[in-house]
Design a protein that fits this description.
This protein is α/β, with parallel strands linked by helices. It has twelve helices and eleven strands. The relative contact order is 0.14.
């Protein structure tokens, strides 16, 4: 395995774990909010398949890093594309609403779709980073109706800018406007899509009748929303039409559209260096603890309900498989960088393979497994690790064996997917528990082989990191 030495001072592993633990406490709080608010049939009182740092009440199967904005807390901006993102270099991303887009695209509740624009400057003026945030999906009409009353289904409840909002809280790691935290992409133009369709940005079902949450219909138009955003970015002064470099990335459910769009964005901009990245979205088509395919059934329902569309990919396989990078990566020719936490708590929960129900307990169990491997014992003392130890009965032998088996499966499948494929690079953050690691403090994830994620991504984009390898 190729080894690369990290440069510069890196945060300590102890800091990494503290920051990660803080994120999980926030996630636990958010999940309790979901549990109190959601009445989804496929997930019980809460969504039952939720994960990530999602907040508020969203309905459906939630994942990714959607923040904690709540219904009615904020109102969408009325900015046009020409007004958004000024002045350049202030680090603020502002909401651009596409009220009269030519595709007729709408969020679930019928509100206009949009994206957050941060204007690039300096050496990043002609470079673009298009990011699809996570936020799970809705797999039934009732779930989508419930989701339409939240910031995950309506721009009415999204903040006007990243300043002082949960959107700004997402802008760490590869989305950060600060150098050296984000030493290549910090001054690029950023377009962060407002995820409001509930179908992984890929649905084409249009107007769908519902009878719940005070709604008579919802709009499942993820594909049209993406087309409207890309059209606006092309028409904007200094937009994609003049781009020399383009990075298309997505987190969790936002990873689904990356493989679908990577080659088409490159084809539309032949003069640009176009590369793509999937973060925390390498979900497996794997059996769950009950020896069934719970996650597969969810994805099949989402694909069917929203009428998932990907003409290139689905020519050779069932449409739902195109939502999973494990299958869809085979159809992509552009370079793709895949990042994932080896101990991905959202993936483990989606596979219904954790016995315990709270993030704190699950993460203590996960950390005990990591600790038992011996890779962290040089960095922290047993006293520093003690707060993360599970209490008696919180991490039984069955839970441990299932977690370890799933982690091994992830490692082997990811390795099999990238090895020998020169356009693919895999990176597993092996010593921190998390999800969507490139957009959190785990961007600084300590390596086992002197390859830091934040350096690996930069070297990859510059063509200095070889493809066809799995780094961990």
């Amino acid at each position: 395995m190729e080894r690369r030495r990290a440069v510069g001072r890196q945060p300590s592993l102890r800091l990494c774990m503290r920051l990660a633990f803080a994120l999980f406490l926030l996630a636990a709080h958010a999940e309790r909010g979901l549990a109190a608010a959601s009445n989804s049939t496929s997930g019980g009182k809460s969504d039952g398949k939720s994960g990530g740092n999602g907040g508020g009440k969203g309905g459906g199967h939630s994942g990714g890093t959607a923040g904690g904005a709540k219904k009615g807390s904020t109102h969408g901006a009325k900015a046009s594309a020409n007004e958004a993102g000024k002045p350049a270099g202030d680090g603020i991303a502002r909401l651009v609403l596409l009220r009269n887009n030519s595709f007729g695209a709408k969020c679930l509740d019928g509100s206009p779709p949009g994206y957050y624009r941060r204007v690039g400057y300096g050496g990043g003026t002609n470079s673009w980073h298009i990011h699809f945030p996570g936020g799970g999906w809705c797999a039934t009409r009732d779930e989508c109706a419930e989701r339409a009353t939240t910031f995950l289904g309506s721009t009415k409840y999204m903040p006007q800018s990243s300043q002082g909002s949960w959107v700004g809280g997402q802008m760490t790691g590869i989305l950060s406007p600060r150098h050296p935290e984000n030493k290549l992409f910090y001054n690029w133009n950023l377009a962060l899509l407002a995820y409001c369709d509930g179908g992984g940005y890929a649905g084409s079902a249009g107007k769908v009748a519902v009878k719940s949450s005070g709604k008579s219909a919802v709009f499942m138009q993820g594909d049209a929303i993406v087309k409207a955003v890309l059209q606006d970015l092309n028409r904007t002064k200094g937009g994609l039409g003049s781009a020399a470099r383009i990075l298309v990335s997505g987190c969790s459910a936002g990873g689904f559209p990356v493989t679908r769009l990577c080659d088409s964005v490159a084809a539309a901009h032949p003069k640009a260096n176009v590369k793509c990245m999937i973060d925390g979205g390498f979900f497996l088509d794997a059996k769950d603890r009950q020896d069934g395919f719970t996650f597969r059934s969810i994805i099949q329902n989402v694909s069917s309900l929203h009428r998932f569309t990907d003409s290139k990919c689905s020519q050779g396989m069932e449409a739902w498989k195109c939502m999973l990078p494990e299958y869809s990566l085979k159809t992509v020719s552009r370079p793709v960088f895949i990042t994932n936490a080896l101990f991905d708590y959202t993936a483990l929960k989606l596979y219904n393979q954790l016995r315990d129900t709270t993030y704190q307990v699950n993460n203590r169990c996960l950390r005990q497994i990591i600790w038992s491997q011996g890779s962290l014992q040089k960095a922290v003392t047993s006293n520093q690790w003690k707060p993360f130890n599970p209490k008696p009965g919180e991490c039984d032998a069955t839970s441990r064996s299932i977690i370890q088996a799933t982690v091994t499966d992830l490692f082997n499948r990811m390795k099999s997917s990238v090895e020998g494929e020169k356009n693919l690079v895999g990176f597993l953050a092996s010593d921190c528990v998390g999800h969507c690691v490139a957009t959190t403090s785990q961007w600084f994830s300590p390596p086992r082989n002197n390859t830091y994620m934040k350096d690996a991504v930069v070297n990859w984009f510059k063509g200095k990191l070889l493809g066809g390898k799995l780094y961990f």
